[in-house]
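Bit of a strange request maybe. I'm writing a small parser for structure token strings and I need a real example to test against, not something I typed by hand. Could someone generate the tokens for this chain?
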Amino acid sequence: MSTGTTEPEGSVDAGRPSPAGPRRRHGRRIPVALLLPALLGLAFLIMPLVGLLIRAPWSSIPEQLTSGEVWEALRLSLICATAATGVSLVLGVPLAWLLARTDFPGRRIIRALVTLPLVLPPVVGGVALLLVLGRRGIVGQWLDSAFGITLPFSTSGVVIAEAFVAMPFLVISVEGALRAADPRFEEAAATLGASRLTAFRRVTLPLIAPGIAAGAVLAWARALGEFGATITFAGNFPGRTQTMPLAVYLALESDPEAAIALSLVLLLVSIAVLVGLRERWMSTP
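Reply from user aminoacidic:
Good idea to test on real output. This should exercise your parser:
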């Protein structure tokens, strides 16, 4: 029996929100008191990058980037950043699991110490590394006397300095992924007889793989751009410890055009990292 009312085809259900509603809300006028500071903040962040692109010596960039010093610095930067990311993965993933899955006295203090390099001035981190791993450091003097290993002012020192400042990015990302993952899957694997290590390897790691990937990319990008701890702990020796940021700093004093060309390379790498993170791991449905 007809109810006496019919809805036209394509009409929107009464209980379903109209798709035009969110658009109307987003189309509201922005208060001038918020718009002006927002535009100033946007200009403050974007104008230096625009200035870099405008003042770049585009005609001489190919010549600048084909010099042996640039390629040597780029090669060393890529190798050291990748090695530092590997160290961060080997040490940081278990550390993130410890912070996310276990409860022990002083966990908040440990988490604060782990994230301290995020806010610590990199130069201070380099000084701290010297005091511990230097030839007369707490651990460094033992490494030197017992094994003849000297870490400061070496390529290994670059990797250590970069890992020190980059690992917290990975730990935070992986810990967040672990807290978001449902621990009941691990418990189910344990009831089926899997050991805790097997459950972590077969169940937990696949669940948190996107978080590990995002953290690794962030750590790699941070390691690639590291300057303060590197120059303090490893020095600035071409072919051995001179990475791209150090080469930019050195070129700025003698060859500004080369410094701009190197800066553009790092800028492109940073943009590629952000685009990759946005499209693969940080996008929302």
